[in-house]
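Final paragraph of the annual report: two paired records, presented back to back.
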Amino acid sequence: MKELMLGNKALARGLYEAGVALASSYPGTPSTETTEEAAKYPEIYCEWAPNEKVAMETAWGASVAGKRSYCAMKHVGLNVAADPLFTISYTGVNAGMVICVADDPGMHSSQNEQDSRHYAIAAKIPMLEPSDSAEALSFTKRAYDLSEEYDTPVFIKMCTRVSHSQSIVETGERSEPERKPYVKNFEKYVMVPAAAKKRHPIVEERTRRLTEYAETTDLNRVEEGGDNSLGIICDSTSYEYVKEVFGNRVWVLKIGLVNPLPVQKIRDFAAHVKRLVVVEELDPVIENHVRSLGLAVEGKSLFPAVGEFSQEMIAEALGEKPAESCTPIENLPGRPPAMCSGCPHRGLFYVLKQNKCTVIGDIGCYTLGSTPPLSAIDTTLCMGASVSGLHGFNKVGGSESEQHTVAVIGDSTFMHSGMTGLANIAYNQTNSTVVILDNSITGMTGHQQNPTTGKNLYGDPAGRIDLEALARAMGINRVRVVDPYNLAETDAAVKEELAAAEPSVIISRRPCALLKEVKKGVPLVVDPDKCIGCKSCMCLGCPSISFRNNKAVVDDTQCFGCNVCAELCPKDAFRAI
């Protein structure tokens, strides 16, 4: 059966057809939908783990137990999972284990453009790189066969364009292997130095065998062109762009197994063409490998090491006439991202700004508190860094910074990697104030559950972690909950906790306004006779409020009825419709 599928959906179909039994992941754009789609198959148990390290360790445990397993994460999430990753390379697997890592060239939803191929090389783990949805499905199935044949976890490297574009996929039936028996094996699974020393040579021999496989596998294929004046080596979406520009006019070596790379196959390809060019996004991984073989090659001298490529870029760099593209509409106003109407974080950030707080930020939809007009966040680094960073900031800043600096972190991010930072504050004692923005969901990646929501991936009842009890158990005596829609209450809490002589946690609790179960309030309207045009309400940056003819105007189709704007109006100009 043929079907039009997103790359992520096709990968999930590959998991189903490969007989996968367990998927454990942490949501991260652009990888999230692979697990959400897999959860639609009752044969696959799926879960959201607290973070990527836990997800990878869970998948490895299922593999050791004898069932095929899967975990997914975005590129920066792989940093969190790096600890188990390198040692799983040594232990190998029992049943097949596949790790999906989704890169984000162009940083559509990420804080860097990390190239995950380096992890495959460093950890000495094979990596497959599909270029469309059909390959996302077929490569996933192939990955499990490779995993079990070579006793190794296998990477599937996706990227934003492959994950979130659609192409035709031909689906098949599920084939579920019998459970492999677990056999106690100290030298394989207990990675103390004595055993690990014996495993390292096995990893090197595995890499040698996989390199031989790379020479003959159809994952790496040569497509002969009509003209051998140019030969292009490419992978992932770069292959699609090259084919759209040149069709069958040039020779192409399409790389699907990006680690380990072939040697003789590349040499033979280079011998057939007059000019050799590597087209790959981000770092020159393939180019450096080709250059190490002593071959003359062009790559980053023609193409940038930043951002996404396009057909036009490739055409221009290689002397082709760019395809005609749509003429962009000129003079459009800028539309920076903003927190939604009714977002519970808006009131909290307004209070922090009014108190002139230095705000150590974190990763989540609340990071939008850094944008004008609120401009309330000073730093954003990585998941959990706000809490740890606050402690370091205050340790050297002393009482002056302790009285004016807070960390903000979401409920899901706190569970992911904020808890250890809070433990550090409690243990090493700074008078730090941590604000947990509890909107009852993982908002940034599209409303996934987390350990604080009381629901699992399927929306069924699950264990729920009590944030207040957790903070107290970690040694924080001052823990309080505020409603960020209540500016006076929130302001009082911030002032009191900043002035306190011990660590404290403020939980700013209000569900995300976009959750289906959250009831929308009555929209507001502005009485033009009362409005004096002071623009106090505009300081919130609410997309429901605009300013026309020196008066505030509310778009009642967007207004959530949170009433935060009404709390700011000195003339009581806002009222319910």
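The closing record of the year follows.
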Amino acid sequence: MNRHLVEPMNESRAVALSGHGGYDEPEQPILLQYWHSLLRWKWVVIGIIVAALAVGLVATLLMTPQYTAEARLEISREEPNITSVEGLENAQTGQDDEFYQTQYSNLLARSLALRIARGLRLPTNEAFFAAHGVDLAALEETFEAGTLTQGRNEREYRENLTVDLLLDNVEIAPIPRSRLVDIRYTSASPDYSAMIANRWASEFITASSDRRFASTADAREFLEGRLAELAERLEESERRAVNYAAANDIVTLGNSVTPDGRSLVDRTLASTDLEALNTALARATADRIAAESRLQGSAANSSNVENATVNSLRQRLAEAEAEYARLMSQFKSDYPPAVALQSQITDLKTSIQQEESRIETSRANEYRQAAAREADLRQQVNGLKGQLSTQNAASIQYNIYRREADTNRQLYDSLLQRYKEIGVAGVAVNNITVIDTAEVPGTPSAPDPFLNLALALIAGIGLAFGALVVLEQIDEGLRDPSDVRKALGVPLLGTVPSVEHDDLVAELDDRKSELSEAYFNVKSNLAFVTEHGFPRNLMVTSTRPAEGKSTTSVALAQTLSRTSDRILLLDGDLRSPSCHKILGLRNERGLSNYLAGEEDWQVMVQKTSSAGLDFISTGPPPPSAAELLSTDRMEHLLAELNAHYDHVIVDASPLLGLADVPLLARAVEGCVFVIETNGVSQRSLKASLDRLRQADARLFGAVMTKYQTRATGYGTDYGYSYGYGDRNS
């Protein structure tokens, strides 16, 4: 008999027809996997969440009621300034976000909390410590028992403890997109909460004013010293400039201002005189050139043309000559009017010559005067040039002295102005205003039962999720039918749902039940694992008891009896038989009797309620089941049974820790391996399969039992959720 594992061809046929693939099942979405895990461990999850809610409820009931008082401030970027004089800080400083962040940090400053503690005398106030859950009597005992005695050290400790309590219970809550900020203080006493919240606001305003006045006083003291120093430097620099000007005969008439605001000497008396003489010299030179030009020009072409008298005489001469020519065309030269006209022409020419001579003499005199004036001015200019060169050389050093004096004066004036401004800057109104004072709260702000229960619920869900992940990691059982092939490399013959029914035989007899449908599917897949169809004989085993091995044996035998005439179910679990209980039969004589030596096996056969199904029980429990199975009588028995029955189903014992199954594997054609869903770990399953391989057993496939369809969410392939409707209809 071939006892090797299923051939690749037969295995492929079995897997293909089993409905569970010759391919890998697609992975489920991660959320669906978590949902299925949640259904599997729902009672653990519910227990953790309920426990978390119970803890949250108990903690809420045990908490001391806390009261929160709230005061509201308005912090302006720019403070109202009565004097219109700027303070020490730039006006643009407060426009940045850093300004408000600084104010919020100052509200939580330890120095501010210390001011409040000292102002309200909280370090010696027992009611304050009681409102924050501090036992002052126990604190006193600590000091008395320790090395610290009543005195300065204890006062410092109380003061630091008070400051810590104040900072731990105050909350600064800025209102977005506004200048408003809320100061909230929480304690077990509503009166102390309101008092401390209001004191926090007032002390913050006072501290802000104190810082401003302190900085102003420091600035005034600094400026006073600088002003005295600059006054001495200014006096010395001005004295040095005046002495130098007197020593070098520098008389200034005007100054120019540089781009940086300093003055330079650019107009002295000598430079002004030279400028005036140089202007007069230029004008005299121009006059001399014009006179020379007129003198050298011809009288006809230039000078005389411009003389009105000469032009008038020439016009009269032209008229007389024209008249004379007219007369001569009619009369002789001795004609009296012609003679008189000739005499007039002669007189006009003489007058013209005399006038031209007088003009030339005047032009010559004019030229000589212009040349003399030019020479005189040039001589004066040359004399002033030397004097001005000497003064220019001296004015360089003089300008240095003047610039030094101007710089000192500017510094002195600016510091003096700043000194006057900061003297009145403190008069400005504070930029922090109390909008709402804190009122004594009437209802506690904590604990909030709904919030605490919500947090407890969130914590419980988180813990439950963590527990779910841990349980999923440590749970090595098979949960998914597709894991049979992936984890074990064994073809899946079918999946049997978990059912709650007292009469298993009746459930199997109902062909519309999920259980009957599942085992019919297993039986159909087994019909393709061999060349001759359903195996002539096979055994059903599992890793450990209570995995559904015996149920599977009975179900396969009963399902086969519907299509075959002669089926025998042999209970081969000599250690813990259970098939007779399922079938409601006796277990007086059976397999153990035959293996012990009896020959007539037919007297051991019992009829069942299913037609065509016979049963042989195990009989009395033997002292050593392994010794009985180690003989060849089991093979002889199966050979005879196969001669009388179409198929023989053997319900074998579990694998781990027992030698029965490897011994039975020699006698049967093959075996079916039963796996409980979420039952045996994968390591144990692999160890069982290794034992079958070592025994050279032929493995037809695996059947997955007790499958929870609702917990996994699979459809008709695995869960058989598609049924026949209402059976009573």
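The chain has a mean pLDDT of 79. This concludes the annual technical report; the extension proposal builds directly on these records.
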